[in-house]
Amino acid sequence: MAPEKYVNTDRLVQTFLDLVRIDSPSRQEQQISDHLKRILEGRGCSVVQDDLGNLVAELPGQGDETILLSAHMDTVGSDTGITP
């Protein structure tokens, strides 16, 4: 039997709303980078932040396989002051 999958939708939506509220135009991502670093560290990840604010987080798993997730933090072409 496959393990039950569970997504905390309340936490997912709240995290999304928190991120949307942080202005992060290109080359001005430090605030959102700091916020994401706190979240990742709070989840047990080891996090390295380079001089440009990029994050590399690692969370050891239980198997031999590696999973890579990649994303950008800036909001190219969007306005600032978004209120969801």
Could you characterize the architecture of this molecule?
The structure is a single chain. The chain is α+β, with helices and mostly antiparallel strands. The chain has a domain at 9-58. It has two helices and two strands. The protein has a two-stranded antiparallel ribbon. Strand 1 (46-49) and strand 2 (55-58) form a beta hairpin. The chain starts with 8 loop residues before the first helix and ends in a 26-residue tail after the last strand. 6% of the residues are buried. The model has no long low-confidence stretch (mean pLDDT 88).
Task: Give a topology summary.
Blueprint: H1 9-20, H2 30-42, E1 46-49, E2 55-58
Antiparallel strand pairs: 1-2
Secondary-structure element order, N to C:
HHEE
- How far do the termini sit from each other? 40 Å
Helix and strand content put the structural class at alpha+beta
Which strand order spans the largest sheet, edge to edge or round the barrel? 1-2
For the secondary structure, the number of strands is 2
What portion of residues is helical? 25-40%
Structure annotation, total helices: 2
Largest sheet composition: 2 strands, antiparallel
Strand composition percent: 5-15%
* CA-atom Rg in angstroms: 15 Å
Summed over residues and divided by their number, the pLDDT gives a mean of 88
Judging from the principal axes of the Cα atoms, what is the shape?
globular
Enumerate the spans where pLDDT stays under 50 for 5 or more consecutive residues.
none
